[in-house]
Write a structure and sequence with these properties.
Layout lengths: L13 H9 L3 H9 L8 H15 L1 H4 L5 H5 L7 H24 L13 H11 L28 H11 L1 H34 L1 H5 L5 H17 L9 H25 L11 H16 L1 H5 L5 H6 L6 H29 L7 H4 L6 H32 L9 E2 L8 E2 L1 H18 L2 H30 L4 H23 L7 H30 L4 H7 L6 E11 L7 H9 L2 E13 L11 E6 L6 E8 L9 H22 L5 H20 L8 H5 L4 H28 L1 E5 L7
């Protein structure tokens, strides 16, 4: 790790060794970095991905026809033209938001295939220094997954970057925007199961009008309990069933839509004319404005579409939406509208009433299964979001369980699962009807969309380097649509819209406080690092008995010796023969390849047997302190010792000679006044004195390497101990 005095002494570190030995060409590095984004898929494989994406990505969006018209007309339909005007609003909302904005623009802003607000934030963190925890290092940019673009200093993108980096308040405001969007997505994970399952279960009451609403609520609660209880099995085991169910659902609602248009009133197809959008706003007044909250529900699930992007290529998702999802949804809404034109008093159960009697129960079963699939997608997305918040240092540590060996993204968080269940049951049993839950749902969705829009503006400027004119057009169109819907849901805050605000506020407080404490703790550890001169003054035994074994001392610092180590030295009678300071560091990338995971450096002279290891992870990776982690860490130590020995034997590099002279001078200064965290690797201090000295070192290096490797192996066999300090942060 780079020494904190910034005098160039970090040139002998492990990652520079890799660069000197390998010397990769710029073109080759670029090829590796782009390998993740340039995958070619055959037509057959692409169709398979498109089919599978139906079950994972589109379940939420596909179940919206269950409740849209009821929430749009909670007080009934006044006249036939009103139905056509609402249908026109639904058609153009689906066209502008899911189709044009998300499927063809926002989905392109993925982080090597990862979607969601955190993926956008990670992209921005790589293109601008906006991370609120200042642990960025130049070697992070050498990762194959750390793809980013450079721009001209006088470009508009460079000016935007400078504007963002200039004040800490702007960085904090951007993080707060991401956290607000995240908290609303968590609220979405609570409200989606509630409204989807309750709407599907409502089909029982349509078949038997005398049935009490309590029975419908009870059935919905039983389904929800079963759904959340099955989460620990993961979606991998039942995922194969999702796509056929959702495909069958789309074909059913599309077919029923065609039947209703043919049977009831084909004139509803006039709604494809934008004139009816104008008539809607002109005729409806305030009541029509507030009914926009119900129309908004037709595009719910759009944000989940982006959040669940990781499993499939963007092209597959685009094919599935344009070929299956979009046409079937238009037919479904048009069919319901055609039915409502002739049966205006059936608006509260428009979906189930419009189903032909001969296929009623099969459709009811598929609707219930589709609601479960939609709920599963939102719950899985919530788990993924919490995991990403953990990596960002914005959420308390909770247990994360991988449910699949094949898919890295499929995780289960027990604590969050039961919190979601309790809140979901409370919402379902508390409101007992779709209308108020729909109001709450709409509020959560539109705020997430606004957060994504603001992040996309920065993505277009910094990452895509678009001209400001198309960015302005995108911003204007997005904000016109989304702020219109936002103004409508504000009127419904007291009718259920307060629920996601309260839920989001609770999670936001937890996240902001936890992140604040994380930053303060990091700043404390940075300012209270132990002086290397003090460590050297203790001698090779560190003033203690060195017992066989390897001690892994965990620290937040990627450079320097943590303050907690001085506490160990002064309070413990013994310390392990080998001490490794382990820094688990999360980077703004979705994953770090295994062969690039660890960075190793020596601390102090060889006789001290002290090392630093930085374990780097992406926000999708899972860190475990298990045998596999120990094995990989020890392998990295062994490789480091071998490379260090090889470099000691080098005699033909003038470059190392220059570095050696600087290092010798630095070592002399270090013994008197050093305050830096890391000492210089001894092999640097020997390089460059003379060719004769280099040859003598070269002859002895192999024996030194063998001796140290044997010592490390004997210490590993004696046992590995994980040492974690406990930091108390007081207000």
């Amino acid at each position: 790790m780079a020494s904190s005095n910034g005098d160039g002494n970090d040139r002998g570190s492990m990652w520079d060794l890799d660069q000197k030995l390998d010397q990769p060409m710029d073109e080759e590095a670029g090829r590796l970095k782009n390998a993740y984004r340039e995958k070619k898929f055959s037509a057959l494989l692409l169709l398979r991905f498109a089919f599978q994406s139906l079950g994972v990505v589109y379940g939420d969006l596909g179940t919206s026809p269950l409740y849209v018209f009821y929430n749009t007309f909670p007080h009934g339909v006044e006249h036939k033209e009103q139905v056509i005007e609402v249908l026109s609003m639904i058609i153009y909302s689906l066209t502008l938001v899911p189709l044009l904005k998300y499927v063809f623009i926002v989905c392109r802003a993925n982080d090597n295939g990862q979607g969601g607000t955190f993926a956008l934030y990670s992209l921005l963190c790589r293109h601008a220094d906006i991370n609120t925890i200042p642990n960025r290092h130049r070697t992070d940019e050498d990762l194959t997954t750390y793809s980013r673009y450079k721009f001209h200093e006088k470009s508009f993108a460079a000016k935007t970057k400078q504007w963002l980096e200039k004040h800490t308040s702007r960085k904090n405001a951007l993080l707060l925007l991401v956290l607000v969007g995240t908290c609303m997505m968590i609220g979405d994970g609570i409200l989606t199961p509630a409204i989807s399952v309750l709407s599907a279960a409502g089909g029982i009451k349509v078949a038997d009008p005398n049935m009490s609403n309590d029975v419908v609520v009870l059935v919905a609660v039983i389904i929800l309990v079963g759904l959340f209880s099955m989460q620990h099995y993961g979606t991998d085991r039942v995922g194969l069933l999702f796509a056929p169910i959702v495909l069958l659902w789309f074909l059913m609602i599309g077919g029923i839509g065609i039947f209703n248009i043919w049977k009831h009133d084909g004139r509803v197809l006039r709604a494809f004319s934008p004139v009816y959008v104008y008539r809607y706003f002109k005729r409806s007044g305030k009541d029509g404005w507030t009914s926009l909250g119900g129309i908004l529900l037709s595009i719910t699930g759009t944000e989940a579409l982006f959040a669940d992007l990781a499993h499939f290529p963007v092209l597959a998702i685009q094919i599935a939406f344009t070929v299956v999802v979009f046409p079937c949804l238009l037919l479904a809404y048009s069919g319901q509208a055609a039915y409502l034109v002739n049966h205006q008093d059936h608006v509260s159960d428009a979906f189930y009433r419009s189903i032909p009697d001969s296929v009623y129960w099969p459709v009811f079963i598929v609707a219930t299964l589709s609601a479960i699939v939609a709920s599963q997608a939102s719950i899985s997305a919530t788990f993924s979001i919490i995991k990403q918040a953990l990596a960002l240092g914005c959420f308390p540590r909770v247990k994360v369980v991988h449910t699949s060996k094949k898919f890295l993204g499929q995780i289960y968080i027990p604590d969050i699962n039961w919190v979601l269940l309790v809140l979901c049951i409370a919402v379902t049993a508390g409101f007992r009807n779709q209308s108020q839950i729909g109001n709450a749902y709409g509020t959560a969705v539109v705020i997430v969309m606004l957060a994504t829009t603001f992040l996309m503006i920065l993505i277009m400027l910094l990452v895509w380097r678009w001209h400001w004119i198309p960015v302005l057009i995108f911003t204007a169109l997005s904000l016109v649509v989304e702020l219109t819907y936002f103004s409508a849901v504000i009127f419904k805050v007291n009718q259920g819209g307060w629920v996601p605000l309260v839920i989001a506020a609770g999670f936001l407080i937890v996240m902001v406080v936890w992140h604040y404490g994380t930053v303060k703790r990091y700043e404390f550890e940075m300012h209270s690092k132990v002086s290397m001169a003090w460590i050297l003054g203790l001698g090779p035994n560190l003033g203690l008995v060195r017992v066989p074994g390897i001690g892994l001392v965990y620290t937040e610092l990627a450079s320097g010796v943590p303050h907690i180590f001085s506490h160990f030295i002064t309070n413990l009678p013994a310390i392990h023969s080998v001490v490794v300071f382990v820094c688990v560091k999360y980077l703004p990338v979705y994953t770090v390849p295994e062969d690039e995971r660890f960075l190793v450096k020596r601390i102090g002279p060889k006789s001290f047997h002290m090392f630093r290891c930085v374990a780097r992870y992406g926000y999708k990776d899972l860190h475990k302190k298990d045998d596999d982690f120990e094995k990989k860490l020890f392998h990295s130590l062994s490789v480091f010792v071998r490379l260090e020995s090889m470099m000691e034997g080098c005699t033909d590099s003038e470059e190392y000679s220059v570095y050696g002279q600087e290092t010798l001078q630095s070592m002399a200064e270090l013994n008197h006044t050093s305050e830096s965290g890391d000492s210089i690797v001894p092999f640097d201090s020997t390089i460059g004195q003379s060719s004769v000295l280099m040859r003598s070192i070269g002859q002895a290096s192999s024996q030194t390497e063998v001796d140290e490797l044997e010592f490390l192996i004997s210490c590993r066999d004696a046992g590995v101990v994980h040492i974690l300090g406990n930091t108390m942060v007081r207000a």
